[in-house]
Amino acid sequence: MLAKYEISREGSKFVVTDPFGMKVGEFKTQRIAKTEVRQIAKDAAMLETARISIAHAVRKVMKKHRVSRSIAAFWIREASGL
């Protein structure tokens, strides 16, 4: 589910606020603020895809090698070079 970010005007700036009420940033124009919100949405989608991919990889290693989740996760991290 995509979080709802709000754009509000404060004086001469446009402020982007996250769903928890935390300020994400201040921008000179509404257009720039909207661009930032689109980028946040894109980043969130990529993060979700990565999380799903990692979870799938961990399950595959667990099943194939009959190891625990922590061992499988260790080897996935090791293989990723992170």
Account of the 3D structure:
By secondary structure, the protein is an alpha+beta fold. The chain has one domain. 59% of the residues lie in helices and 18% in strands. It is built from two helices and three strands, in the order E-E-E-H-H. A three-stranded antiparallel β-sheet has the order 1-2-3, covered by helices on one side. A hairpin with a 2-residue loop joins strand 1 and strand 2. Helix 1 crosses helix 2. The longest helix is centred in the middle third of the chain and has 36 residues. The protein is rod-shaped. The model has no long low-confidence stretch (mean pLDDT 93).
- Low-confidence parts, pLDDT < 50 over ≥5 residues? none
- Main β sheet profile: 3 strands, antiparallel
- Number of continuous helical runs: 2
Shape: rod-shaped
Taking Cα atoms only, what radius of gyration do you get, to the nearest Å?
19 Å
How confident is the prediction overall: mean pLDDT? Answer: 93
- Give the strand content: 15-25%
Order of helices and strands: EEEHH
- Structural domains: how many: 1
Number of strands: 3
For the terminal residues, how far apart are their CA atoms?
Answer: 27 Å
The helix-and-strand class reads: alpha+beta
Strand order of the largest sheet: 1-2-3
Estimate the helix proportion, in percent: 55-70%
